[in-house]
Amino acid sequence: MGVKELAMLSNGVVFPNPKHYKAHLAKLKRLSRILTRKVKGSSNRFKAKQRLAKHHAKIANLRKNTLHQITTYLCKNHATIVVEDLNVGGMLKNHKLAQVIADCGFHEFKCQLEYKAKKFGCEVMVADRWFPSSKTCSNCGHIQDMPLKERVYNCESCGHSMDRDLNAAINLSRLAFTVKAD
Fold first, then answer.
1. 152-154 and 123-127 as β-strands: parallel, antiparallel, unpaired?
2. pTM score of the predicted model
């Protein structure tokens, strides 16, 4: 998944990443700066601390609401959902991606999918971390290495070209069919 989308379906439906933390970062910085300028132990510092905590809670609630809406839609409308087992801890070590990856809430997304799948009677499959979903051509099956910065998959074998994430979503949906067939 790219940074611009939170999830992509094999039929091309995209759930954009709203980036709630980034949208509210300026206000968080301002509230934090106000807090640090207050005298320790004062009632004004306590009030500033509460305002900052309230704003952090608002961002968390916005993120949870977005995840609830997406996971409910997925579980109600799809019999089988395939998600990748992403190395989120490793992705968080990359300082250029860390803030956006943390803002997505991948762990919460996966947890909500699992309990809602039981509730709505659908199946959640987790693709192996090393399955080359975005490196495999969905047209001919050719596997090629791709750096993360390339967002369009161009097959060297058949010349097929499409969005990297859509290509991965198609490959993951095919994986679900092959596992069910076995």
1. unpaired
2. 0.84
d(CA 98, CA 106): 12
Residue type, 160: H
CA dihedral sign of residues 156, 162, 168, 171: negative
Angle at Cα 150 formed by Cα 145 and Cα 153, nearest 5°? Answer: 65
Q: What confidence tens digit (pLDDT) does each residue in 60-103 have?
A: 999 999 999 999 999 999 999 999 988 888 888 988 888 888 89
Whole-angstrom distance, CA of residue 109 vs CA of residue 96: 22
- What sign results for the dihedral spanned by CA atoms 167, 151, 88, 137? positive
Residue 182 has a pLDDT of: 60
Amino acid residing at 144: Q
Per DSSP, 39 falls in state P
- AA identity, residue 77: N
Per DSSP, what are the bridge partners of residue 162? Answer: 153
CA distance 180 to 121: 16
Phi, psi of 30, rounded to the nearest 5 degrees: -65, -45
**Beta strand pairing status for 5-8 and 14-16?**
antiparallel
Q: Cα-flanking dihedrals φ and ψ of residue 81, to 5°? A: -120, 125
